Prior knowledge:
Blueprint: H1 11-25, E1 29-30, E2 37-42, E3 45-52, E4 55-60, H2 62-73
Antiparallel strand pairs: 1-2, 2-3, 3-4
Amino acid sequence: MKKALYGWKQAPRAWYERINSYLMKLGFTRSEVDPNLYFKVEDDKPLILVLYVDELFLTGANHLIHKCKREMASEFEMKDQGLEVW
């Protein structure tokens, strides 16, 4: 998928299919209630990922967040916005 997806009518669907399959490979489970919510439990700690258009939000233990970011950065071009505290 070296071609840019933007501009294609099917771009959102292609992006979702690609990210969904990758997240499943990482061991995430997609929520039955919200298809943009993914979760997994590792070391008895939850990691929650939420997709919103072409952004994602992670919450969970710091070591799981950092591990997930490293794994995803090896597959996707990413920009880390850092820690957001409300």
